[in-house]
Design goal:
Elements: E1 24-26, E2 29-30, H1 47-62, E3 68-72, H2 79-88, E4 96-101, H3 104-109, E5 119-123, E6 135-139, H4 147-160, E7 166-172, E8 178-185, E9 188-196, H5 213-216, H6 224-238, H7 247-260, E10 276-280
Parallel strand pairs: 3-4, 3-6, 4-5, 6-7
Antiparallel strand pairs: 1-2, 7-8, 8-9, 9-10
Helix pairs in contact: 1-2, 6-7
Protein name: Class I SAM-dependent methyltransferase
Region (Disordered): 1-30
Organism: Blastococcus saxobsidens
């Protein structure tokens, strides 16, 4: 699984009705849910979300009896899965990372990268191959789906989480310079994070093209996410004088202004210097949908 480019016209869908009895792939595993996609993978593409995971989710993994992470839809090579292991491994004793792909050929292609239990690979989709991970990173896997199917995929993955687990679902461009992701627990979405190489954007709303499927079609006047991006752009414009000191200083000032306006920002302000901002989902969730 991976991003199917920027083509939003062709959208896959999941059957709205579950099968009465799913066929088996192997002992203990139901049929993998989802469709194979393009599989494009570039080294360091997911560095922004990985940095956020390391900064915010290490305590969750350390507190778990089995710190299992699933990397769903790693694509045509194991590179981003292995990078996640390298970034989290030094912070979490006993870390296990399992990369899942719906295409068995992609799983076979990374056999030499297996080093269980530290890192392993298997066939699986939104049902997470029967695993109960503490953390799921699902990046660039839902853009080809329609909004209703993407919502059902969210529900399926959340139900598979271990108690207290977290799903991180999002999208980024080919080189990881523009990203957006949602953090969800068993009860639903918690936060939206936008992250960018700030020198690569003209305005914060440039990141709208990376919004998750649950939001991207709601970026229209009258919807909260549109108002958030509009406010962000206005704050960015007001901070133009700080461009002399670099785009990061301008980004930090714009985010500070959002907080002063009452937008419910989450997390340490130190993340702002990395071109990040996290806001509570309740502030951007679609209304009247």
């Amino acid at each position: 699984m991976s991003e199917a480019g920027n083509d939003h016209k062709r959208r896959a869908s999941l059957s709205p009705q579950p099968q009465r009895k799913a066929p088996r792939l192997a002992a203990g595993r139901a049929r993998a849910l989802g469709l194979p996609t393009r599989g494009t993978t570039n080294a360091n593409r997911l560095r922004r979300v990985d940095r956020w995971i390391v900064t915010t989710q290490v305590p969750r993994l350390r507190d778990s009896a089995r710190p299992l992470v699933v990397d769903l839809g790693y694509g045509s090579s194991a590179v981003t899965t292995l990078e996640l292991v390298e970034r989290l491994g030094p912070e979490v004793d006993g870390l296990e990372v399992v990369g899942l792909e719906i295409d068995p050929e992609r799983v076979a292609a990374v056999a030499e990268d297996r080093d269980p239990p530290r890192v392993d690979f298997g066939v699986g989709g939104f049902e997470l191959a029967g695993l109960q991970p503490v953390l799921v990173r699902a990046f660039n896997v839902l853009r080809q789906y329609d909004e209703e199917s993407a919502a059902r995929a969210w529900d399926t993955m959340r139900r598979a989480l271990a108690p207290g687990g977290l799903l991180v679902e999002g999208t980024c461009d080919e080189w990881g310079r523009r990203s957006a992701w949602v953090a969800l627990d068993a009860d639903g979405p918690l936060t939206l994070t936008l992250a960018a190489r700030v020198s690569d954007i003209g305005t914060p709303s440039d990141l709208a093209e990376r919004l998750p499927k649950a939001l991207i079609h709601h970026n229209v006047p009258g919807q909260p996410v549109h108002e958030f991006l509009r406010a962000f752009d206005a704050a960015w414009a007001a901070a133009a004088g700080l461009s002399t000191f670099g785009p990061r200083q301008r980004w930090v000032a714009a985010v500070e202004a959002l907080g002063e306006q009452g937008w419910p920002l989450v997390g340490s302000s130190r993340r702002w210097r990395h071109g990040e901002v996290t806001v509570r989902w309740s502030a951007v969730a679609p209304v009247g949908a």
